[in-house]
Amino acid sequence: MARFEKINRFRWVTFVLVGLLSATTSVLAEEEPADTQPAETQPDQDDAPESDPESAPDKSVLLDPSHESWSRQAPDVYQVKFRTTKGDVVIEVTREWAPNGADRFYNLADNGFYDGCKFFRVVEGFMAQFGVNGDPEVSAVWRNASIKDDPNTQSNTRGRITFAMRGPDTRTTQLFISFGDNSFLDPQGFSPFGEIVEGMDVIDQLYADYGEGTPRGRGPDQGRIQQEGNAYLDAEFPELDHIITARGGVMKTEREPLICSICR
Predict the structure, then answer these.
(1) Architecture of domain 40-259
(2) 56-88 burial by CB neighbour count: b if 16+ within 10 A, else e?
(3) Who's near 45: CB < 8 A, 6+ residues apart?
(4) pLDDT tens track of the chain, all 264 residues?
(5) Which residues contact 19 (CB under 8 A, 6 or more apart)?
(6) 3-state helix/strand/coil string of the chain
(7) Cα separation of 69 and 260, whole Å?
């Protein structure tokens, strides 16, 4: 009888241990896909811990470039924080470098325009380009919402951020960040308005294997990005990194701490 009880106890302990091990394995199996799948396939999971209904972009404003919120003057110096799929990046903008560009960037970031935007053209040693809204309906109304050029007062060196353009007075929403010395762009009218002050190592890690866009390379077609948005990029270029959220704040001076007056 005693031997039978010992056997039963051994079986009971074994059953408990097996049950605990199975439960632990189940938990790991549920969490593992979140670590092994590309971040681009699960933006909702990435955003969930910090979701705030009040911070979501107002699409009615995004669809109306004439709305008053797009014409506000930016502070003299301000910062914008990008949460990206590779980490956080902080951009500091000095308005006197390029006032029109600084104002446009301030309002685009504050209104959530860059949320979800892909880094669709990442060319090693050159630059990382982004700024086409993931919603084709939104990108369509901004495609010709251009601002006037700014005089070039700064050089396109490593870490500087600048608006892309098709020619004089054609800057809209697309931007690029220089990986190296791109000062050859200075005489062409590309006017930097800010620079990376935190997270340039994050920019260096952006997925770049697609390279230059079509037809010069195997990367995305900008025309199709405009017409089809992130649906096209997710389907055919799933490894691209993107901005999760872009929000900003005001600095009283260049040396004083950030005072977040427009963070949402």
Answers:
(1) Beta Barrel (2.40)
(2) ebeeebbeebeeeebeeebbbbbbbbbbbbbee
(3) 34
(4) 444 344 454 454 444 343 433 333 333 222 222 232 223 322 232 333 344 444 788 999 999 999 999 999 999 999 999 999 999 999 999 999 999 999 999 999 999 999 999 999 999 999 999 999 999 999 999 999 999 999 999 999 999 999 999 999 999 999 999 999 999 999 999 999 999 999 999 999 999 999 999 999 999 999 999 999 999 999 999 999 999 999 986 554 444 444 333 333
(5) none
(6) CHHHHHHHHHHHHHHHHHHHHHHHHHHHHHHHHHHHCCHHHCHHHHHHHHCCHHHCCCHHHHCCCCCHHHCCCCCCEEEEEEEECCEEEEEEEEHHHCHHHHHHHHHHHHCCCCCCCECCEEECCCEEEECCCCCHHHHHHHCCCCECCCCCCCCCCCCEEEECCCCCCCECCCEEEECCCCHHHHHHCCCEEEEEEECHHHHHCCCCCCCCECCCCCECCHHHHHHHCHHHHHHHCCCCCEEEEEEEEEECCCCCCEECCCCC
(7) 18
